[in-house]
Amino acid sequence: MPAPEPPPAAPALPRLAVVIDDVGQSLTVGRRLLALPGPVALAILPQLPHSQTLASEAAAAGKPVMLHLPMENMAGLSIGPGGLTTGMTEAEFRSQLQQSLNAFGPIQGVNNHMGSRLTADRQRMDWLMQVLAERQLFFVDSRTTAQTQAAFAAEAARVPHVSRDIFLDNVRSEAEIDHEFRQVLARARKQGAAVLIGHPYPETLAYLERRLPQLEAEGVQLVSVQVLLER
Ligand SMILES: [Zn+2]
Fold it and tell me: Signal peptide location in the record (predicted)?
């Protein structure tokens, strides 16, 4: 008798990781984000009024917490407290980085807030990734410039890393948000996985509250960045 054939492996579902940036200003909005289904990551800015509370509540709810690390941009926009700039000496850079990494409870990873100037600076990306490697943190490159050196530096320092595929809400209208969401699902199906970044805007919240519960029925698995990086 021929040996029974092993059951066919279930085809892996396309995976989507969702990160919400700029969290920490509003407790109400932060709690709505925590109520979203699945492992949606809160990327929390270091020194906002509710950074600490939301980080603790996210951890208690089993939601992934990331540090949303402010970095110098080309436009000269204010990056807020706890940020890194190209003008800092190595000692200043490392000291500010450690302070921001310690700003609230445990984090799983880091992504950049702005940073079109700083992420293009390979030396400073090397300094950053050395510290992330020591702390065993992952990095999500928000890709605010095509010249970003973050992925190269992360690779060199062996920091698990991934790049943002799509920004959900550069235009805050339901039609545009829906368009971007469809784009990221198409990417996930094509590449096997994709990373979506959104912001705590009312339009984005309303969209995700309605849309995320339907994902599984559409054959897309919502996963944390950490899980996406492990496979
Ligand atoms: Zn940001």
Answer: none
